[in-house]
Amino acid sequence: MNTAQPETIQRLDYTVPSFLVDHIDLTFDLAPSATSVSATTRFKHNPASDSREIVLNGQDLELVKIVMNGRTLEKPDYALDHGELRIPNAPDDVTLVIDTLVRPDKNTSLMGLYISNGNFFTQCEAEGFRKITYYPDRPDVMASYTVTLFADKKKYPVLLSNGNLVDQGDLPKGRHFAKWEDPFKKPSYLFALVAGNLVCQEETFRLADGRDVLLQVWVEDGNLDKTPHAMESLKHSIAWDESRFGLELDLDRFMIVAVSDFNMGAMENKGLNIFNTRYVLANPRIATDQDYANIESVVGHEYFHNWTGDRVTCRDWFQLSLKEGLTVFRDQEFSADRTGSDSGRAVKRIEDVRTLRQVQFPEDAGPMAHPVRPDSYQEINNFYTVTIYEKGAEVVRMYQTLLGRDGFKKGMDLYFKRHDGNAVTCADFLAAMADANGRDLSQFELWYSQAGTPRVKLESDYDSLNRTLSLTLSQSCPPTPGQTEKKPFLIPIAIGLLDAHGKEIPVRVKGSDNASDTCVLELTQEKQTFTLVDVPEKPVISALRNFSAPVILEFEQTDEELLHLLANDTDSFNRWEAGQRLAMRRLLELTHAVRENRPLTLDKPFIDAFRTVLTNTSLDPALRELALTLPSETIIAEKMDEIDPRAIHTARQFMRKTLANALEKEWQKAYKNNLTDGEYRPIPQDAGKRALKNLALSYLLLCDSTDTCHMAIDQYRQANNMTDRLAALTSLVHSGCMQKLPEVKELLEHFYKEYENEPLVIDKWFSLQSTSPTTSIESIRELMEHPAFTFRNPNRARSLIFGFCHNNMAQFHAEDGSGYEFWAKYLLELDRINPQVAARLARCMDQYKRYVPSLRQPAERALKQVSKQELSRDTREIINKTLS
Ligand code: 0A1
Ligand code: ZN
């Protein structure tokens, strides 16, 4: 903890390690209050370095002994300060034996070695290994590992680490051991161990090359009925990486372990992936369709890291997106392919873009904006961001858009050929893509180095005489912290044209021989005009198809044009986009009207367009659900210079209520026509129907005329799956039925009792209340007193506190500032327990400078109050940047 300015690490300060490691042999004697760790490490001087000093990182360690080439070192043979152990003047070959003691039971940060429900787990990315032993804890030092675990056999019957199990046995006094060997060189952040009382589902699986591998999913006793979906997802992931990228599993054994206390989603430790339980455990009773989909995608993500992250890793943490952007892109493509249909792929794409806009665009426009490859950081844990992950994935997707699927695959092949077994940079990835395709992609580098969301303006001019359409594209990018001037990006803009009947007009760029329904224009300059030829009539332009670049498109189109696209575009993404733009126009106008106390109205053409979508049964239910869901409050806020959260909420609620009443009959019909009777199946077709039906229910609960609360109550009671049950309860609570009907309160209690022993469902119980516009801050405070609430479990803390601060605009931004005071109080409490999670909570205030003055003041007061306190380095960095 400190109040001073933390040190800033600069990307350009990178220097090669002075010593490399070829092997480390680790021994753990596991006990909660004192685990002894003995590390024998073989170092070799790095010929590329002038330095002769061995530099090891260490944090919260008790150093017992350090022996170099057989000689015990005493100070001043070595120096120890600022978390670094330095040994000067070391010879070429050094073997160090270092004994340390750690205290897992006192570790609430969930980094390094810690205890969850009595079992041992580790988390080493990014810099957790230094909490286990002194070591060059940096990703460009790659070594092979052997790990021997000793523990009490009764308490810790299962002992796991990376790689292959090579020995195990019983020892006197009820103890036992297991020895693991990982033949692949890896950085320390990929090390893992797990020890405890766990059970597993296991299967042997045949790879494409005929090899049989052992797959295991480890969970706490009593959860084996919840592992089959994760196991299926793992098998699908393995098969997909073989067929799409020709990448095979390189180990004989692959393990997934679920842990309930975990800071993030999951971790790709070599051969021993450790997961937050919420991304493993599923059965119809406890998991929603969304949970099933998330599990498949996270299992895929971690598995795909085996090549993009583990075999080829990052040279330094500034290159984080090298593995994360690429792996997110891979998991997105996996999930899209798994849907098995074009509309399924479109649904996935729309969901991904929605997340990007909901979270990444605000980040890129706020105080924490940073390039996909940042230039500096104070705390690396703060840089596991949507920019690194989701924008990084968009950057990777653009290679595929520019080079085609085959060209992209060629680039991947060359990347592995060049860099397998090494720690490399984003520039190496770019070079592989460019070289494999014989293209100069030097301008593309700006996507890594420049922060901010580019704006692209499109102006069109149709010449009926020459049958040409000229498209003038211009780009700009707003300033971001530390970057005032931006150079023009290389931006792929996918364009299509529709005629008056909604048919595609082939797109042909002047001077080119090919015509296609969708053409990718490459914008490289600040302003550029493209001429399209053979355009027989003035078309309706479908621009930025499938969201071909992570930009904000400024293109004025009339309501009629947008309605035409909504009805006819063959690009499902843009069809959805047209609907969102029609809604957004009105939502912005309504928000102004709320602020100016003007009457609120909604026009008939818009309501009719909504009706048409709702009743268009030839359109996939999942796509209809997306089209009928209004842009979120956060996305609306992004479009406003000055944010008035409650006005936005009021405007959006008005629109929902108006659409509910105007289309009541249609919603009723959609509800009835999309029931999924019979056994629950978490497949996209059924999930899409449930999504549409439950959206209909949420609209119906807003109708004035009939009492639909009972419909929702019946759905809750009759549901055979968590998706329908939770949707009914959520709508009942959020719509205000709870205030009208005492039965709803009973259902809420019933839900708690029914799932008392399922922590992941109790998280849902907390979040459905914390995110409700009907839940006052007093009720939130009451919920914090609930015996099931704890700060120590990140999922639980997130379900209540983040739910309220991040996802309850109407209540969090109370005029009297009570929401912000609440935030400040619990941020400080959380920061003492778990800095990483606290720093994420700190991000709620990112946008405070854009709030209306009446909110800006209390927000600033809360921020300053926090700033005066002693803070972790994690939270300090966020608070300082927010206030600066
Ligand atoms: N590499 C993981 C994310 C991750 C990062 C840091 C962690 O420490 C608490 C945990 C996980 C991934 O991308 O899945
Ligand atoms: Zn990842």
From TrEMBL:
<dbReference type="GO" id="GO:0006508">
    <property type="term" value="P:proteolysis"/>
</dbReference>
<feature type="domain" description="Aminopeptidase N-like N-terminal">
    <location>
        <begin position="23"/>
        <end position="190"/>
    </location>
</feature>
<keyword id="KW-0378">Hydrolase</keyword>
<keyword id="KW-0482">Metalloprotease</keyword>
<keyword id="KW-0862">Zinc</keyword>
<keyword id="KW-0645">Protease</keyword>
<dbReference type="GO" id="GO:0016285">
    <property type="term" value="F:alanyl aminopeptidase activity"/>
</dbReference>
<dbReference type="InterPro" id="IPR035414">
    <property type="entry name" value="Peptidase_M1_pepN_Ig-like"/>
</dbReference>
<keyword id="KW-0479">Metal-binding</keyword>
<dbReference type="InterPro" id="IPR042097">
    <property type="entry name" value="Aminopeptidase_N-like_N_sf"/>
</dbReference>
<dbReference type="Pfam" id="PF11940">
    <property type="entry name" value="DUF3458"/>
</dbReference>
<comment type="similarity">
    <text>Belongs to the peptidase M1 family.</text>
</comment>
<comment type="function">
    <text>Aminopeptidase N is involved in the degradation of intracellular peptides generated by protein breakdown during normal growth as well as in response to nutrient starvation.</text>
</comment>
<dbReference type="InterPro" id="IPR014782">
    <property type="entry name" value="Peptidase_M1_dom"/>
</dbReference>
<feature type="domain" description="Peptidase M1 alanyl aminopeptidase C-terminal">
    <location>
        <begin position="559"/>
        <end position="883"/>
    </location>
</feature>
<dbReference type="Pfam" id="PF17900">
    <property type="entry name" value="Peptidase_M1_N"/>
</dbReference>
<dbReference type="Pfam" id="PF17432">
    <property type="entry name" value="DUF3458_C"/>
</dbReference>
<dbReference type="InterPro" id="IPR045357">
    <property type="entry name" value="Aminopeptidase_N-like_N"/>
</dbReference>
<dbReference type="InterPro" id="IPR038438">
    <property type="entry name" value="PepN_Ig-like_sf"/>
</dbReference>
<keyword id="KW-0031">Aminopeptidase</keyword>
<dbReference type="GO" id="GO:0008270">
    <property type="term" value="F:zinc ion binding"/>
</dbReference>
<dbReference type="Pfam" id="PF01433">
    <property type="entry name" value="Peptidase_M1"/>
</dbReference>
<feature type="domain" description="Peptidase M1 membrane alanine aminopeptidase">
    <location>
        <begin position="230"/>
        <end position="444"/>
    </location>
</feature>
<feature type="domain" description="Peptidase M1 alanyl aminopeptidase Ig-like fold">
    <location>
        <begin position="452"/>
        <end position="555"/>
    </location>
</feature>
<dbReference type="InterPro" id="IPR012779">
    <property type="entry name" value="Peptidase_M1_pepN"/>
</dbReference>
<dbReference type="InterPro" id="IPR001930">
    <property type="entry name" value="Peptidase_M1"/>
</dbReference>
<dbReference type="InterPro" id="IPR024601">
    <property type="entry name" value="Peptidase_M1_pepN_C"/>
</dbReference>
<dbReference type="InterPro" id="IPR037144">
    <property type="entry name" value="Peptidase_M1_pepN_C_sf"/>
</dbReference>
<dbReference type="GO" id="GO:0008237">
    <property type="term" value="F:metallopeptidase activity"/>
</dbReference>
<dbReference type="InterPro" id="IPR027268">
    <property type="entry name" value="Peptidase_M4/M1_CTD_sf"/>
</dbReference>
<protein>
    <recommendedName>
        <fullName>Aminopeptidase N</fullName>
        <ecNumber>3.4.11.2</ecNumber>
    </recommendedName>
</protein>
